[in-house]
Amino acid sequence: MSDLHQPSALADRIDRLEAQTARLRRDASRMRLLAGLACAALVAVTAVGATAVTRSASPLAFSDTNGHTRLRLDAGGVHVFDAAGKERILIGFNTKGQPAIHINDKYGTERQSLYLDSAQEPIFAQFDKSENERAEYYVSNDDGSARISLDAADGGTRFYVHANDLPYLTLGDKGYNQRAYFGLTTEGSGLLRMRDESGKEVVSIEGQTQPFMRMSEAGTERAYLGVNTGDEGELEFSYPNAGKNVVLQGGDSPMAALYNSYGTAIWSVP
Question: What is the pTM assigned to this prediction?
Fold first, then answer.
């Protein structure tokens, strides 16, 4: 005989069915609420830019069981709050009328922002706890390049990447000077260049048709190693006044020469 014919077993089965039905009803209510929120958010964000929407329209707010507002829809967009009443997420439009998503920390300080600028370039920015922008990632409409800028708290760019057909990256110091450059030249040659605090070149390495390495002092060339226009290897050391000091040259007609500070050859071979 089936246990369903026992009164207690039948009562238990009915209780379980009623509990399951209640859970399904609660789940359905939650889904309807989420769907309603999604639709309301979409309507609110889309309508912000419409002239028919007025700022005087009453906001739509949703509160938790403690009466704290956790989500609000108004002409400014979708606002999400934590239990302490701090706005943590804003989905809407920024002060320039462009679509934006802002994310705040528990103190209400903006830490991340995703938006379009006035040129319709997508930008993702990150901020420190003092609201200084420290990192920015964006795509340019001018040349389609992707760019990354990492800044110090003083706003000076310390690391910058420009990625297109001629990519490059730069490093800067606290004096806002570009101290190192690594990338491709306009001719497509590899280039590494370093500068001193005053911005004058100290080291340059370029991989072109006639590759070379040049070392300088305060912008004045002191040493050079490379291939000259005659496709001959060449090593040259210079005086501080830029005059030649030692020259070594290879190729079909190798030679070596020493010069005094007046530029006069004092020894040479052959």
Answer: 0.71
